[in-house]
Each structure stands twice: as structure tokens, then as C-alpha cells.
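Reviewer 2 asked us to include a model.

Predict the structure of this chain.
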Amino acid sequence: MSDKPDPETAFRARVVEDVRPWGKFRRFPHEGASGVKIVTVEPGGRLSLQFHERRDEFWVALDPGLEVTVGERVWTAAPNEEIFIPRRTRHRARNIGAKPARFFEIWIGDSAETDIVRLSDDYDRK
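Predicted model (C-alpha cells):
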């Protein structure tokens, strides 16, 4: 058994929330990040069911309407919900709402767009 925390615990331990007179902000660790994106999913759109060999991902739902799959769990993510996806874990996002829905994505680990293993894809991509 390792004394080293799992990747999700290690990542979340470095998230800092700072309260200010006007509200607050959450700062996410970016050391070791190889990508930061905002992904927009159109109504009825669905990303491929996929996993990654070389990266974990951390998502923050920005809008209502996102149905998220991580492993065997499928749920509707609430806006501002934070989701950790360990490498080699199947996942996808789908927009079940009537308006475009976005999520913020951080790649944790040495990775690129080519680090996608698609298990199922609506657009016949390999």
C-alpha cells in the first residue's frame, strides 16, 4: 500500500478557494497540466465515449443540461459541479438541454489531442 494519495485527492488538495468582499474564486492547480479548454456541446450533441492513456481530466460544469458519464455512473451535472476523471476511465458528456452547454476542462499529465481511445462515437471517428 502506497502512502502517496490518489491523483484525485492530490489534485483537489491543491485547489484554493479565496473569499473576497465581492464573492469568491477557486484557483485550480495548473502545474503538470498539458491542456486547458472550455468545451461547448450543442443541444443533442454527445462526445464520444472515450478514455485516455496518459492523462486524468478535471471538469467543471458551467451550464445546465450536461449529462456526464464517468465509468458506470451517469448523471446530470449541476452548474459549478467539479468532476475528476482518472486516466483509463471511460467518460463522455452529452447535452440534454435546449441551449448550448459548456464545461471547463483541465488535462493533468503529459498528453495531446491524440490521446483519445474512442469506444463509441456518433460521428464514426476512430
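The CA atoms of residues 53 and 88 lie 5 Å apart. The mean pLDDT is 92. We have added this to the supplementary material.
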